[in-house]
Structure formats: C-alpha cells, structure tokens
Specification:
Length: about 100
C-alpha cells in the first residue's frame, strides 16, 4: 500500500473540493410551496391519479377564476370552497401560475 505525503493528500483534497459537480437545483417558489396542499387530491404536480380532475397545464386564468369562484361560493363544492377560503388573491394567483406550467 502506497503512503501518501501530507502535501499529496492536501492536493487531492483541494482537487476534490474544486471539482465541477453537476447538480441541478430546483427553485422553490411560493406557488410551488402552496401547491403542496393540492397534491393529496389532485396528485403530484396536479396530475391526478384518479377521479379527481387533473389541474396541471390548465390556463392561469381558468385556475384563478375557478379558485376564486370556489372561495366566494359562486361555484358549489364539498371541499374546494373550504380550501380556497384559506388563500388570498395573491396566493391563488401563485398557485394558478405554478399549475399552469406543469405538464
């Protein structure tokens, strides 16, 4: 087994520290964070695995209007009205923006 000098070990350590590792970072947005509450029913990223409608890729205008209508009671619902009442106009817009970009 070869013995490395302290200088060789330090050079190897420095090389490992400066190595270019490819890491993909995901920017967490408020819309993404708020959308987590939708995942239980509408599926991850709005892709529903069952009878609940998928909301991924719907237009921002459609999602904003639908959530606003649920919140006001204009659109009848069992659960969505209660969820939507917890969001401000800005939060609804952020959620709609997020899901409109999901494919």
């Amino acid at each position: 087994m070869k013995n490395f000098s302290l200088q060789q070990c330090l050079l190897l350590f420095a090389a490992l520290l400066t190595a270019n590792y490819s890491v993909t970072a995901v920017e967490l947005t408020q819309g993404m964070m708020l959308s987590n509450t939708c995942a239980a029913c509408h599926g991850t990223d709005g892709k529903s695995p069952g009878a609940i409608p998928s909301i991924n890729g719907k237009s921002k205008a459609f999602l904003t209007q639908t959530l606003t209508d649920f919140r006001s009671g204009k659109r009848p619902s069992t659960v969505m009205g209660r969820h939507a009442k917890g969001y401000t106009d800005d939060e609804i817009r952020m959620i709609a923006e997020y899901f409109s970009h999901q494919k």
